[in-house]
Amino acid sequence: MPRKPAHEQFDTLKAIQDQAFHLFGRHGYEGVSIGDIAQAAKLSKGALYWHFSGKAELYLHCLGRLHGLFRQYIFDPMSRTEDPVAGILYMFRGLEQALRDPTLEQGVAGYWLIPDAPETQAMLHAQAEFESASQAVIEAVLRRGVEQGRFDLAGDLEDISRAMISLMEAVVLPLRYKTPEEVHRMMGVLARTLFRAYAKDDAVLKLAKMF
């Protein structure tokens, strides 16, 4: 069979990736079959196997895509700023912006449903690596705030950074069903609660109230 032109291969690959991303986000790894993805993409299974060796490889690609969106909206902006207060505000703003991204509007809860099986070890490892790197970004921002005398974490720095990762995972999943205004209000409440608990000066609290 002659090889498809490059533009047709690109269109086919994009259809597979997009449909797989949405299906895995809604139903998780175990809830989606190769046949489901091929049907959603309006392609044959053979066309899918032309680009991916199987479901595990495709899921790992989609998981990396999700991680990339979180880095784009949240962790890269946090890493770039030297202002720890702005860094924490970027975290909440980034969550809000991510929830408005059309790529995520169909849901991402399925990416937290990775079973523990031999074929999923690479996925579990990728998820653990991403969470560890994300926690390190948050911890670095909080540590900078402590060093600048803007946060008082009373030795809880590592635990708080870990708790923030859990908080982000907890709020991302259901908030996509809220309106943008509801999401904005909820992010504001979470930000102000955090700063009221750990800010060391009124200026920080005023910045948080502006969110």
TrEMBL record:
Residues 33-52 bind DNA. It comes from Panacagrimonas perspica. It comes from the Bacteria. It holds the Pfam family TetR_N. One of its GO terms (molecular function) is DNA binding. Keywords: DNA-binding, Transcription, Transcription regulation. The keyword Metal-binding does not apply. Residues 10-70 form the HTH tetR-type domain. The keyword DNA-binding applies. InterPro entries: DNA-bd_HTH_TetR-type_CS, Homeodomain-like_sf, HTH_TetR, Tet_transcr_reg_TetR-rel_C_sf. This is TetR family transcriptional regulator.
